[in-house]
Amino acid sequence: SNGDTQTPQPxxxxxxxxxxxxxxxxAINHQTMLDDSxxxxxxxxxxxxxxxxxxxxxxxxxxxxxxxxxxxxRKDMETEHAQxxxxxxxxxxxxxxAERDKKTIEQELEHLxxxxxxxxxxxxxxxxxxxxxxxxKNEQLKAQLADTEMLLQSHQEQLSELKQVMQQMTAERxxxxxxxxxxxxxxxxxxxxxxESLGMTCDSVSMSPSYSxxxxxxxxxxxxxxxxxxxxxxxxxxxxxxxxxxxxxxxPKPQAQSIGATxxxxxxxxxxxTSGMYRLSTGSMTSFQVIGMGMGISAIxxxxxxxxxxxxxxxxPLPSTPSTPSGPPPVPLKETRFYKRVLVDDIEPTLxxxxxxxxxxxxxxxxxxxxxxxxxxxxxIPPSSRINMMVCTLCGESRNEDPLHxxxxxxxxxxxxxxQKYPLCGYCxxxxxxxxxxVGFLRLCKDGLWKCEGEQDEKHAWEVxxxxxxxxxxxxxGGGVVPTVY
Length: 486
What we know:
Elements (H helix, E strand, L loop, with lengths): L1 H5 L2 H60 L5 H103 L15 H13 L35 H10 L63 E3 L21 H15 L9 H13 L2 E5 L26 E6 L9 E4 H22 L7 H23 L9
Antiparallel strand pairs: 1-2, 2-3, 3-4
Helix pairs in contact: 6-8, 6-9, 8-9
């Protein structure tokens, strides 16, 4: 057993030697690796020391630069950079805002400049227009002053001629006792002989009852009954219109009515013995158109033809003095049945205010009221003041080629300076004048200034009334008649 146990020993020794050899080889290899590692470590150490020295030098330099202020902290730089960025953004926003404000200011400045130039141009144009208007107004005033002086001189001449005519008529009255201007009574021309004598009287003083007696002047067309020396009207006296007219004549009269309808400028006290106031007789109305009696005319009218452009007619109210009434109060003219009848039959068809393009509804009422009350005035327009642009108020006439179409007169409803003036053409002037004369005649009859002391006087007044209505008819027709000898 011992032999068995000693036999395997060499095997164990060999194994141990082999193991030790392996270990020795591994140790040598390990030592070699350690040497290599040591060498590399030493080399790395040397490199690290050099790097450390270099870094230390850099650190020293950095510290020196930091100490000297050549370098700043990153955090400070970042803070300062952030501040710069914020300031840059603010500057950009402010710049964009400033650019917008600049554009707005430039636009406003451009608008203001444009508005300033426009306003300046308007002011210059207004000043120029005002200056032109003032120049035209001054020229018109100068022309009106010259026309007024000429009219005044013409009126003075006409007044002197009219005084001569009145003196001649007074002489004829004293010779023939045909025409009387005495206060107590007014005898009627109730027969053909009286009318013929009146025509002879008018012819003797170179005054035709209804037209100019100049042989070289053509007679203007007029209504037929105006030729009282040629024809005599024959009228019915059993119609309702005549009864209404009699009621107007016999209506209550004002107690202290002033005698006479027209005051002559500077009358001669020896004419008629009435100290400048005359009572109208019941003779033919056309025989006294030249002196304006009986028509409520407030201004003296020349005895030139009625179509003369220098004649100014005013349908003014009759003068009267207040007194204590006795008996029934007088009825206004517009409330009488006859006036209401002729308003529908004659006045409205003649004037046709409802078709007047230049009158409003209120102006039409005022015009009709002025016509009834006797305050409607027609004045001639001086040639220098006539404007071709204006049209006729009543008919709308706008033509200027023919003198008959030109607006030569103007109408106003009162004597105040601020009264509205309405231009009229010759056709409308004829219509308005005929209507004013008719209403003035009715006012005379209503106020008792047209004396009617009997049936013959009432019939003759009816003839005169019919003549006025006939004149209104021919006025709205736009024509008339002339004797065949012409």
